[in-house]
Amino acid sequence: MGNSIRQIQKLNTRKRIIETAYKIFSEKGFSVPSTMIAKEAGVAHGSIFSHFPTMNELIVCLLSDFGEQIGVRLHELAKKCDSVENLLKEHLMALEEYEAFYTRLILEKDRLPDEAKNTYAMIQSILAFHFSSVIEREIKKGTVKNLPIHMLFNTWLGLVHYYLMNKDFFADSNESVIKRYGTELLSIYLNLIKNESKV
C-alpha cells in the first residue's frame, strides 16, 4: 500500500512539473532555469532532476506530450473536414488553444535539442499530410487553383507563423493573434488560392 501511495505521489509530482514547465515555457521561453520551474511547481529543485535528469529531457518529454495531443487533434480534424476552408478553420482553433506555447516553439525551435526539433517536424508533417489530402480533392474539383501543394501549404503556414512570431505588431500582449486575425487570415488565404471560375 505504501508503495502505491508513493507511486501516485511521484506521478502527481511529475505531472505538476510538466504542467508548470508548459506554463513557464509558454510565457518565458525554453531557456528558463530549472529552479524557476521547481519554485513555481512547489517542488524541491532535486525533484525535477529525479524525474528529468537534464532540462533537455524535460523539454523533449513536454514536446512529445504536446506533439501527441496536437497530432490526435489534427487527425480528428481531418476526419470531419470536407473542405480546405473547414480544415484551416479547425487548424486555427487548435493553434488558438495552444497559441502561447506554439509561438514559443516556432520562435525558439532552432535552439531546442534535436529530438524536440523532430517532434516539431512531426507535428508539421501530420498537418501537411491532412492538408494535402483535402487540397488535392479541391484541386481535382477545380475549386482551388492547380498550384504545387507544398507551396499552398507553406504559404498558409508562413502567413500564420508570421502573425504569431510578430504578435507585438498585431495584438496586445494578453490578446490572441489567432482570435483577432484568424478569420481575416483565412479569408485572404482562400481568396488567393480559390479558382474564381468555380467559386
Brief overview, please?
It is built from 10 helices and no strands. It has helices at 2-28, 34-41, 45-51, 55-80, 84-97, 99-108, 114-141, 149-165, 167-170, 177-193. It comes from Defluviitalea raffinosedens.
The name of the CATH architecture of the largest domain is Orthogonal Bundle
**Count of alpha/pi helices:** 10
Which segments are poorly predicted (pLDDT under 50) over 5 or more consecutive residues?
none
Structural class: mainly alpha
Subunit arrangement of the protein? single chain
User: What is the top-level CATH class of the largest domain?
Assistant: Mainly Alpha
What name does the CATH topology of the largest domain carry?
Tetracycline Repressor, domain 2
Beta-strand portion reads: under 5%
Q: Give the name of the CATH superfamily of the largest domain.
A: Tetracycline Repressor, domain 2
DSSP strand count: 0
Gap from first CA to last CA: 66 Å
Average pLDDT level? 91
How large is the radius of gyration? 20 Å
H/E topology pattern = HHHHHHHHHH
The percentage helix is over 70%
Total tally of structural domains:
2
Largest sheet: none
Overall shape: elongated
Descriptive report:
With 199 residues, the chain is an all-alpha fold. The protein folds into two domains: 1-53, Orthogonal Bundle (Arc Repressor Mutant, subunit A), CATH 1.10.10; 55-198, Orthogonal Bundle (Tetracycline Repressor, domain 2). The protein contains ten helices and no strands. The radius of gyration is 20 Å and the shape is elongated. InterPro entries: Homeodomain-like_sf, HTH-type_Tx_Regulator, HTH_TetR.
